[in-house]
Amino acid sequence: MNADYRWYVVRSKPGQTKRAVQELQNQGFEVFCPSITVEHIRAGKRVTCVEPLFPGYLFIELSELTSNWRPIRSTRGVAQILTFGDKPAVVPDDVVENLRTQVQARSELRPQQPVRIEDGPLSHLNAVFLEYDGEKRAFLLLEMLGRWQKLSLPLGTFGPV
Q: What is this structure's pTM?
């Protein structure tokens, strides 16, 4: 990808995020709409749903020099490109890559799955994924001194073995 390509934020019309993503992809734009799997209780039953991490918003990669920005505003499902003043709001590449890594790691992990801690004082130790602890952390089981200890670590500090 050229160095002049950057990530921007697009706000979608209410309830039309999926449509905006599909329409922008059909036009050849690189689009990223992070989503997560969440559990809800509906009618007394546990239901698993896939929801956008940022409802109503998505990321699009564009070049100020070579991309045609005009069709974006009239794309079905798109409300606007977010701006600060008269300039489109730029999202740093590392923020988008970090989001991609976090979402991918979260979607791949299943209860009782072996993981390896990759960052922090417990790095290079193996553990067992237990469950998510909110949006940014997870509970792991780590065997220490002959006993299983439950810890809460930030997502991104461990990964599947």
A: 0.65
